[in-house]
Amino acid sequence: MHIQCTKKMLDFLKPDIQTINTDHDIYAWHMNYQTILRKKFIVLMHDLSRYCVVLYGVKKSDFKDPIDFMKKSISIAMDFDGFPKALVLEYVHGINHVTYGKTKNKTMVSQLNRAMMDAKMMAHNYLSDRLYQIDISHFLNKGPVGTNNWKEVHYPKDKMLEYMDLL
Length: 167
Prior knowledge:
Elements: E1 2-5, H1 7-13, E2 28-36, E3 39-46, E4 52-58, H2 66-80, H3 85-93, E5 99-102, H4 106-126, H5 134-142, E6 145-147, E7 152-154, H6 156-165
Parallel strand pairs: 1-2, 1-5
Antiparallel strand pairs: 2-3, 3-4, 6-7
């Protein structure tokens, strides 16, 4: 699993940065955070499908074992969205290591920022004092996402299921 982080996220985590080509990688994600009520509000977005996982109250110590943390975060969001259990298990078992890098391009960053903005709007109504914000994740994943100036539109949950069926 390769997570491309914004500069702010890299400054928070201070990981070893690796440059990896993730153009058609099903295990490629982008990550950013904002601070809400003095706690970290993180959005993890899948590169190919724009599927999002939202976390709140994350501490740097949560990233000491990033493999288990990512597996658990992704599987909880996918379980809540109704993904078949076998597909979720197959996907998370494919996460053997976690690497970090800089963001890919401005388009991905703008889509990540859009997801952050939508998640933050939802946080006013649905934010709870738990790590996994499944309600906000579910809201982001059932709404349409446009690419190429909204000439191509898809739903992140459906697109993620398509990619997982290819495993």
